[in-house]
User: What shape does this take?
Amino acid sequence: MQSLPLQELKQVIKIEDSSLDSQYHVLDLTIRQNRHRQDALIEVLHKAQEQFGYLEKDVLTYIARELKLPLSRVYGVATFYHLFSVQPKCKHTCSICLGTACYTKGGKALLDILMKELKLEAGKRSPNGKVFLRVERCIGNCGVAPAAIYDGHVSRQQSPAQVLATVKGWMEEP
Ligand code: FES
Assistant: This one.
């Protein structure tokens, strides 16, 4: 199957920026190298994320079209795997563990204070785009419950005040 000529592609997804042109060229190359095979979806998503930084809807729509897959399927795969992001990456990520051990030792209070005081929502970026809040279901380190993970580093036995201070500090960074 032939891929869309770039001009048509631009009309479909309204690309105007020339840097986007080259990003789509690279993505297109990967799709062609994989002969538009549907089972190459993960590899194509990897390449798209590498090029664009995250998987925005236009990109997912383009991939779905090129691989002749339903957009819902492409979106489902992109949101299932943690290594893919459908939103622009944030500078910081705070993960709160709500597995059984962490939950019973106060993990929910860690989440609650971030939602209440900083208006963060689980699974979303902060309104200023600096922090992404994630909820985990046991990170396999129950001895340190309740645990929070700050930019990939596990912190043990966190209190709501500690979590709030850390994330608030991030939010107030210039
Ligand atoms: S429940 Fe939190 S680390 Fe296991």
Observations:
- Residues 46 and 166 are 31 Å apart (CA to CA).
- Residues 100-118 form the longest helix (19 residues).
- The chain has seven helices and five strands.
- Residues 97, 99-102, 138-139, 141-142, 145, 147 surround FE2/S2 (inorganic) cluster (CB under 6 Å).
